[in-house]
Known about the structure:
9% strand, hydrolase activity, nuclease activity
Amino acid sequence: MATRQLLIAAALREERLERRRNRRRLRNQLNISNIPDLEFVGNYRLSRELFEELCQDIVPLLPPKGRRHGIEPTLKILTALNFYARGSYQGSVGQNMDGPMAQQTVSRCLQEVTTALNAPHILRKHIRFPQNRNERNLIKQKFYDKYGLPAVVGCIDCSHVAIVRPSEHEERYFNRKHFHLINTQVICDSDLLITNVDASYGGATHDAYIWRECEIRNHLEGLQDETVYLLGDSGYALREHMMTPVDNAVENSPEGRYNYLQKRVRCTIERTFGVLKGRWRCLLAARELHYCPETAGKIILACCVLHNMCIRAGIEGPELTEEEHQSERTRQVPFETAASSTQALQAGRRARNSLIQMLERNR
């Protein structure tokens, strides 16, 4: 009996070694130059040229190959891109014919590449809110040229990214629709570029609270002698620098026309979420990131970096289907009207009234 068990154990070890050798052999045969361009973009969402640029940025940040048969850095990046793009479980990514590997290896590749994309200098390079008047004026002009609304430096909203039930502080991530998520705040410009993102809060946190704690709010409030607006929905409190819709506005009144334009411009952030999640489907609310909240937040930031790279390079990604759009809308929690202090609210109303009067004069 003991001899039989030893033989079975030896056979299992040999089987595992053979699987490992087969995976290594297939990886060694991988030549990305043989993958057609359209297939490359379809699998990894980046063009070959943009992939090379990404490698130049983050390969130095990846752990060096520890063994002769270790995973090449470029293959680690391809593995992570494939996971971000497909939103499938790690096992199916690891079994993809482009680079077969064990699920544990896929997980390690994903962690290493995600960490590299979250390096502070990488985030600063690719996700950057305008810091000076010239940069703000450029964004304002683009919004004005497209929509006719002056002084807009961005649109803001939150989107939900589902995660598995966390082992700690579950109550912070459990939302009113009874699943766990990261409530991700994003600010975008008129080109759908993400200029600021915060993926550190759970689904139990109100959008308005995330904004109150955001450094960009303090930055905008500190600007002197310059008119700047962010556009948000009624989940945000009306402020001098936060323009929200007018409640119960009459259609075709000045307030109604403002609401129509404000909503039209604010759809920019909805399109940004659609492009982001259409390209990097691991973020779709109908799926779950099987990671702790901290790692899930880093994956979200990594996808935002890659989103901006693709937008700047003019690479179009797959669009969400109507069914996927409906699934996203179903999983998102409706906003609650934000509470507001009297003095700040009055200043916000004066600023919004001035904007409405300006729009009326320019009709």
